[in-house]
Specification:
With about 240 residues, the protein is of the alpha+beta class. It is about 30% helix and about 30% strand. The chain folds into 2 domains: about 130 residues, no CATH class; about 90 residues, no CATH class. It has a 7-stranded antiparallel β-sheet with strand order 2-3-4-5-1-6-7, with helices on both faces. A 6-stranded mixed β-sheet has the order 8-9-10-13-12-11, covered by helices on one side. A hairpin with a 4-residue loop joins strand 3 and strand 4. The longest helix has 18 residues.
Length: about 240
């Protein structure tokens, strides 16, 4: 089953130390970790958590996924991590937001260094993550959606966190214009939830270029890849201007 996966590295030397940090959080005894489950005993809630060994490539992964927004001093700390916790949530960010905020805060309090959304490939400092998760709908979008490009398209990755297809814009567009188009198209769908069909057109404004939509499968990622979007991809293609 597709999931939202958060990667949180820390300096816990082993599982025993991790458990000790969890259970000693104030109020004492509210949280517990056992059998791959991180639990809030007061709320009778829990999330799956995989406690894993350190990754020698972690700094580079955060450097790339952080899009040059991770400070050098934090990257140095990430080099010194000794373990990684992977938290798993249902792939429904709007509904899961409060739980994600709670468990993220817990991980930060016990020494988690930063957060990377493994199901999108974007990383944040704790400060930015908390602001985005607590902010506007566009902030929430920015928390889990990254824009990339390949030989044919500029495209988004992460819209499956909202239960929606990705968006792809022509590679011939400049990166800033493509980013503006994709972000506006995605935000409009998150907020308005329009009913779309193949052949519909979209434009940022009546006077700007129009693009015809075609819904295609997500062929960029294998089905078992956390990046895979089972809802597909809306490919936007330029509509020729009438003479």
């Amino acid at each position: 089953m597709a999931e939202m996966i958060l990667c949180i590295p820390g300096r816990w030397k082993d599982t025993t130390e991790f458990v000790r940090q969890v259970v000693s959080l104030d109020p004492n005894g509210r949280y517990m970790f056992a059998g791959g489950i991180l639990a809030d005993l007061q709320k009778k809630d829990h999330v799956p958590l995989d406690f894993c060994a350190a990754d020698a490539n972690l700094r580079r992964a955060f450097e790339i996924a952080g899009q040059r927004k991770i400070p050098e001093e934090l990257l140095v700390e990430l080099e010194q991590h000794s373990a990684i916790a992977y938290l798993r949530f249902a792939l429904d960010l709007p509904r899961e937001r409060e739980r994600i905020l709670e468990y993220s805060s817990l991980m930060r309090r016990i020494g988690g260094l930063a957060v990377k959304v493994e199901s999108a490939g974007i990383a944040h400092t704790w400060e930015r993550w908390s602001l985005l998760l607590s902010g506007t709908p566009f902030d929430l979008y920015s928390a889990v959606v990254v824009l990339v490009r390949d030989a044919k398209y500029h495209h988004s990755c992460g819209m499956h966190h909202f239960g929606l297809p990705e968006c792809a814009a022509p590679r011939s567009m400049s990166a800033p214009d493509a980013a503006d188009l994709i972000n506006r198209f995605n935000y409009w769908r998150i907020v308005e939830r329009p009913v779309l069909s193949d052949g519909h057109t979209f434009s940022v404004a009546p006077s700007t270029p129009h693009f015809r939509m075609t819904l295609e499968p997500d062929s960029r990622h294998e089905v078992d890849d956390p990046f895979h979007n089972a809802h597909g991809v809306w490919c936007l293609r330029s509509v020729p201007t009438a003479v």
